[in-house]
Amino acid sequence: MSGHSRAIMLLVWLTATLTVHAQEETRTMEPLNRFPRMMQEYVVARIRALDAANEARIMGLGTEAEARAYVEELRGKLPAMFGEMPERCDLNVRTVGTIELDDLTIEKIIFDSRPDFPVTANVYVPHEADLPAPGAIIPSGHSKEGKGANYNQAVGQLLARNGFIAIAWDPIGQGERLQYPGGDDEDGQKVRWGTLQHNYMGNPQLLVGEFFGSWRAWDGIRAVDYLLTRDDVDPTRIGVTGCSGGGTMSTLLTALERRLTISGPSCYVTSWRRDIENELAADSEQMVPNAHALGVGQHDLLLCNAPGALILLTAEEDFFDQRGAQESYERIEHIYGLLGAAERLAYYAGPGGHGYPPAMRDAMARHFCAAAGLAPRASDEQFQELTDEELWCTESGQIAEMEPRWVWQLTAERSRELATRRGDPSGDELIARVEAVLDLPERDGPPDFRVLRTWTQRGYARPQASQFVLETEPEFGAQAIVTKLEDERRVAQPLTAAAAGLDGSAVLYLPHLSSDAEMREDEFVRELEAAPAFFACDYRGIGESTPDTVKPDSFDGYYGSDYFYAAHATMFGESYVAWRVHDVLRTLDWMASFGYDDVHLVARGYGAIPGALAALLHESVTRVTLIHPLTSWAEIAESELYDWPLSVIVPGALEQFDLPDVYRALEAKGLTLMEPWGARRTPAVVEAGGEAG
Question: Does pTM surpass 0.90?
Fold first, then answer.
């Protein structure tokens, strides 16, 4: 090879090498995230174990007595999932109009499911029926029109033409019941209709011990109450059917309402396991608190009403996994067989995707007629679609004209009531309440850990950084990822404080979103990195375990990955906050095992809540600095608008304590509060403890 050729090859090699190095340098500036599937694998492992146990339990039942005992056991679990229902108020029914079709009348009514909490509804009444007629309730799916969506109209008309008296109503946050008037979106709302309003209302409700699904179900229970005020309705024959979100509510109402004798959920029932495996996020009323913890599946909710007549209505190409629907049906079928009620059960799998098409509606009507002792006499072909406006019960199409109480106002009232009840816990009482609410796993010694390759080019305040993966919940693969900055002369030395010639003092930093990015880009954190011993912890679901699941770039979306795991945490009877507190406590245990037992804990934003709670509970924390901490959970619960995610919320917390109680207790550890954030994640003033910067 000539010298010229060698020179060209060298130039090509050098150019390629420099290009690769440039690309690597570019990549190193992206936040580190080497474990983006950790949270998904964690919840999948847990739900698979629960699902296997549930299947073995049900399929292992062998007698009618055992089946009946299982159903009674399920019913006994309902209060732990749905809470106590409110006292019944006067329905205050107002008939505000009627629509006459050839063979039925549509009555437009408004009733109160709670005081000053109006529900707009349409009642489908056949002109000819054997009285008293069977009744039916039709909860709506997630359609903007609510009761006026064409499939709800079609179901109402079909049931009426087959001899039922049926009622369809607007869900909270849909149709005529939008909850955030006075905004500037296309509907004049401050929060978009439907599932976004559901989550926006539902997340703060968890703080005060409420569940949005119970609120939605209560409207359905009061719809049954309304039907039973009518002399023309037979109280022994009442059905429920709805599609999608209405299938959810049909399932929840089947579990809760013993007066229902016929059920037909459409395009909802699958299994929690399939939903989690498929990364299918759902809205607030679909995430039943404590369901996983109690070993209750979607099929179990339907079994609460066994042996009532039941048809599962599914679509072959639905995003609600057909496999899960079939698995649920097999378990239901086994129980019904033991109860001698196999003839009351049916399964329909129609072509196409998500929805409630005519063939499915006809299958529902046939099953409902058989269960009610009626001969089918009409099909969906007779459907006459009306406009949404024709079905309105209010003049404007919104209950805002009635000046009702809004859900967020009722949540605020409950928050203030709880503040009076719980008082100002402190000392050992506060610690006991915090531990009870968080319900953390037992800790026994420091966690096992892995040592990752040392980073030298991340742009931290010191060039050497050791990386550790702490096995914080090893049974299901949960981890905390810890970075320790090293002096060059000590990088190969033991980790212990004593060997490093330190006195046991250290800084532990908990980031808002990524310790790697914040260690490089935040000036305050870079000053902290000058400490003799500096550690940073990416707790669960943050930084190096930020999920890449659900859908691309969805982390902070209202149906996003952060919400997805936070919602399932509530179904495990836990919270994302508690999971993260556990990670921080295990990190502190691990540090203490190496002699770092005098820790200045510094936490920012999302990290400030688990940081504050861990600092309260761990004896090695002697100083605390919180940057942009949430002022109080009560501020979220009592505000119309807020900007914090579900992942900072602990269900039931405000029944026992609030964050200012924790901040006051941390004054003994030299708490500093820097630029606290209120409900809108904007600067606020904190009255309790610390120093506002």
Answer: yes
